Predict the 3D structure of the following.
Amino acid sequence: MPTTENKNNIAFVDGQNAYMSTISADEPWEIDLARFRVYLRQKYGVKEAYYFLGFVKEEYQELYDEIQKSGFILHFREHSSVMLGKKKGNVDTDIVFTVMKKLYRKEDFDKVVLVSGDGDYKMLVDFLIEENKLEKILFPDFKRASSLYKKITRNYFDGLDRNGIKEKIAKKRKGGLR
């Protein structure tokens, strides 16, 4: 079994799901993206990490800069200019398509780490398990992860809000976690 340093895994983060899940948790918190990127590299051997967001808005440029400075490759969902502001990000199909395209093209990577609790990824997760290409699905809020994942075994998932992980990746502020 390869060590973390020898792994060549890729991560896909559903940015809206990660953000909304953590800020609406029973004890709201925010992910420190730089610390999270280090965690993904050290824990799961993630060499490339893709962060998917809904659409571009100039007022969020600081967030986009933070995501990129933290080591994520930023992907935006394409929307018609008429629809901007009227629909949510909905990056699910973009993530599924990108993963499948990488598999189809036989790109050089070992396994996938998916960050989302959204049940829309269940078929992808099942397929990746079947193909021995799933490293882990990380639920931003374990309690609110889709019930569709109840049948997958524990070695394929974890909660970012569990097992000391939150303390490693949460934004810090004076007085403790934020």
Notes: The chain has one domain: 4-177. The chain has six helices and eight strands. The two ends are 37 Å apart (CA to CA). The beta strands are 9-14, 46-53, 73-76, 112-115, 134-139, 157-159, 172-173, 176-177.
